[in-house]
């Protein structure tokens, strides 16, 4: 009997090893991975750990699902390099300086979705560079400039990475400081004149190639959405000011987001715990089913390429300040 049990266990172990190898080879084919023999073992280990996490989560969670993407074989240090929101202030210290504007008592639509708006530029990829703040800075400028002039414009994140010495290039920054920098500099250049090239390195101020003749948009004013965290205030500003940059705390689970309304009970409650800049581009509510209740959500644009999430976007639970996303919404207006 013991011998038979041992044979069964061995057979199962061999089958699992074969499946792991098949899954790993398919992943490498799907995402064009080619590793050196020295690197192969570590990459495979990261992938299989992610595989187990995805399988466990998807079997237990009905609200949102995980899936493999280009991050599945990265180390924790490599994933951290994608984060770069670094607020210069703590939100509670701003209360005395910010005027809490009453939320307008206007009729808000049941949903807003700017993803397919003619003024929304395609989702971009920040690469292995903590420049998320520059992408969050640029998106609303592109959108609002187009809204005002009727002409679509693509603006340069690389200009901010290279030139904005109030922020830290690939080592992080924040959109409010970037808007202030652009006010003093004279505006944001067009990406056609200053293409995005950042990789793992990038030091602000050392390679700046600013050209005032290539400016595509200028900042008139900007501010924080107040009071905070207030979902209705964010919805109101989305209607009046277009897409809104925000910051949130990225937990390991978000890297593998695939579909559904994201939430994670491990998100911190301290509103100052944020590490990544994104852009809120809409909101809505899911349709209730027999097993899953309706869920209010934000539609959020990321800068991790169209191959991540919902073609570069994700939905996150609305009204509960999930991962502090409702504490850091801001708006910008153009000249």
TrEMBL record:
Pfam families: Inhibitor_I29, Peptidase_C1. CDD domains: Peptidase_C1A (cd02248). Keywords: Disulfide bond, Hydrolase, Protease, Signal, Thiol protease, Zymogen. InterPro entries: Papain-like_cys_pep_sf, Pept_asp_AS, Pept_cys_AS, Pept_his_AS, Peptidase_C1A, Peptidase_C1A_C, Peptidase_C1A_papain-like, Prot_inhib_I29. Transmembrane segments: none annotated. GO terms for molecular function: cysteine-type endopeptidase activity. One of its GO terms (cellular component) is lysosome. The keyword Disulfide bond applies. Residues 1-17 form the signal peptide. Residues 108-333 form the Peptidase C1A papain C-terminal domain. Residues 24-79 form the Cathepsin propeptide inhibitor domain. GO terms for biological process: proteolysis involved in protein catabolic process. Belongs to the peptidase C1 family. This is Peptidase C1A papain C-terminal domain-containing protein. It comes from Daphnia pulex (Water flea).
């Amino acid at each position: 009997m013991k011998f038979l049990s041992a044979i069964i266990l061995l057979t199962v172990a061999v089958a699992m090893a074969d499946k792991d190898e098949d899954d790993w080879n398919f992943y490498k084919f799907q995402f064009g991975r080619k590793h050196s023999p020295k690197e192969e073992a570590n990459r495979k280990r990261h992938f299989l750990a992610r595989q187990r996490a995805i399988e466990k989560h998807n079997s237990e969670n009905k609200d949102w699902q995980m899936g493999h993407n280009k991050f599945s074989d990265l180390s924790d240090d490599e994933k951290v390099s994608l984060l770069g929101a670094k607020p210069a202030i703590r939100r509670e210290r701003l209360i005395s300086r910010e005027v809490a504007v009453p939320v307008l008592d206007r009729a808000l639509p049941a949903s807003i979705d700017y993803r397919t708006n003619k003024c929304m530029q395609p989702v971009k990829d920040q690469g292995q560079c903590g420049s998320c703040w520059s992408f969050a800075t640029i998106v609303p400028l592109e959108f609002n400039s187009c809204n005002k002039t009727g002409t679509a414009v693509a603006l340069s994140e690389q200009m901010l990475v290279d030139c904005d010495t109030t922020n830290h290039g690939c080592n992080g920054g924040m959109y409010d400081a970037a808007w202030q920098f652009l006010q003093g500099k004279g505006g944001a250049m067009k990406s056609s004149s200053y293409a995005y090239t950042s990789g793992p390195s990038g030091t602000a101020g050392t390679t700046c190639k600013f050209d005032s003749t290539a400016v595509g948009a200028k900042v008139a004013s900007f501010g924080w959405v107040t009071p905070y965290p207030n979902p209705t205030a964010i919805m109101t500003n989305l209607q009046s000011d277009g897409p809104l940059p925000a910051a949130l705390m990225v937990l390991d689970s978000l890297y593998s987001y695939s579909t559904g309304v994201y939430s994670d009970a491990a998100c911190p409650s301290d509103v100052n715990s944020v590490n990544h800049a994104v852009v809120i581009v809409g909101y809505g509510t899911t349709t209730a089913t027999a097993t899953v209740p309706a869920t209010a959500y934000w539609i959020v644009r990321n800068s991790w390429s169209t191959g991540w999430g919902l073609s570069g976007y994700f939905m996150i639970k609305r009204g509960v300040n999930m991962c502090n996303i409702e504490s850091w919404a801001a708006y910008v207006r153009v000249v």
